[in-house]
Amino acid sequence: KSVEETALTQELAVCKLLSTTALTAPSQLSTESYIQTTTDIVIGTSLDLSRGLAEIGRNVRDGLIKAFEKINREGGIKGRHVRLIVLDHENNPTTARDNIEKLKQDYHVDIILSAIGSNAISGFLDLVKNKEILLLFPNALSADLRDPALSNIIHLASSAQELFKGVVDYMHST
Predict the structure, then answer these.
(1) pTM of the model as a whole
(2) How far is residue 125 from each of residues 58, 77, 89, 122, 171, measured CA to CA in Å?
(3) Where are the alpha helices (DSSP H) in the chain?
């Protein structure tokens, strides 16, 4: 498997676990719930699909679509199909904010998966701080996203600081 495929497989395994838990646990959000009570579980993402991070965004989108298709082929989550809504934020914080608002209002989404880019995420970080959305596995290097007070962000990967420290430690040991 490629690095991207491995990362997306891990991401969706954790997402499936979290979604399964959210279906049976009371919500911690100030909004209605992590998971809607409709037939489908609707999860949204806002990716750069057309600007500087577009290649990454398209790879993440394609991987998520494949993973969601696999989950649905296997019966979904607790018998419910998972639907992914993907919007293009063009690596722009204002557009990212508009996308998140659209996901919330038009699709009743309060789980945002794999948003890409610190700049774009900064446009809706207040919604995370206010616990209006749950942000799963952001792909961004900003230290602002590692604030312990942000309890509605779940990271899959190490922070940039931890990553760079690991590289430097490895270089010193060889």
Answers:
(1) 0.74
(2) 22, 28, 14, 5, 35
(3) 3-24, 54-73, 93-107, 118-122, 125-129, 160-173
Phi, psi of 98 (to 5 degrees): -60, -40
pLDDT in tens, 71-81: 899 898 888 89
Distance of CA 19 to the CA centre of its chain: 12
Q: Which residue has the tokens 């009743």?
A: 108
Distance between CA atoms of 130 and 135, rounded to whole angstroms?
12
- Over residues 88-110, the pLDDT tens digits come to 999 999 999 999 999 999 999 98
What distance separates the 2 farthest-apart alpha carbons in the chain? 55
Residue of higher predicted confidence among 165 and 34: 165
